[in-house]
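Thread: quick sanity check before group meeting

JM: Hey all, I'm pulling together slides for Thursday and realized we never actually wrote out the predicted structure for the chain we discussed last week. Dropping the sequence here so it's in one place. If anyone has concerns about the input, flag it before I start.
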Amino acid sequence: MDTTGYETAAAGSGFGVAAFVVGGLVLVGVLIWAVRFGIKVMRSESRTPRGGEHPTLPESGPVHETRQRREPDEVPRAEETGRRLTPHELGSSGSRRSGDQSRPRWNAGSSGSFGGGGPGAT
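JM (edit): ok, ran it. Output follows.
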């Protein structure tokens, strides 16, 4: 086993110190090159968006929130159709716009909560 390199570095000779300095400079140079290469690749991958790639406002202007009351679509009963409906015949469980668009209000004399002291059976 050849240990002359280790012995030279341990002895503090000029050659050993110079070898470590040169090796460190080479390592730093490689790291600087890698960072610059990474920056170059990132710049080539990023691009400015072209026209039509961003969403735009509609011609009528910004869209605002609307409030409406909805009511569920009723499921036909088996007596009405004469047979049971299968799941694919039911369709989506959607809703439709209610004919009465007034806001719901609490009933007079009711607190609106369970056990709220309203009239009830004792």
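AS: nice. The chain has a mean pLDDT of 78. The CA atoms of residues 62 and 72 lie 29 Å apart.
JM: adding both to the slides.
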